[in-house]
Predict the 3D structure of the following.
Amino acid sequence: MTNISLAQRFQEARAPKIEVDGREIYSLYEIDVSSGDTLLSFDFVSSKKSSNQGIKIKALNCNVEVNNQILTDFFIWLDHSPNHIPMNVRIGKGGKATLKVWNVWKYDDVVHAWIGNAGMLVKKDDRHIAFHCSDGVGDPDFEDLVFTIEVGKVVK
């Protein structure tokens, strides 16, 4: 890898996905939930650094129920959340329903994303998605934060 940061590469590509050293790296990942009401199972797997790390989820044409709260734009912080979080997604009427997911971290109480060497390696296996995240600090390290999301359809 050259000295060009991941943030610079994403800017130059004008895309949320780039290829570096034969690997697809995402600045944000979209999960299509248009097929109907969906159950998600979110799990923190591991974290390398002591900095406060987390994820941001933005729901488009849907909302997410977490701990009896209806949300459309929220953070899940490693140091303030349980390791396992069940979520219910309720889609809106018409159009594509999507969850946008990206990694974030706090430094001096300021939330950061999409700078330096921030990015995610995403491994999808059917309904199970593993996110290996590099925060923007230092060289890319895709084990800074690892979390998974399992997507399941609500049976009515």
In short: The longest helix spans residues 6-13.
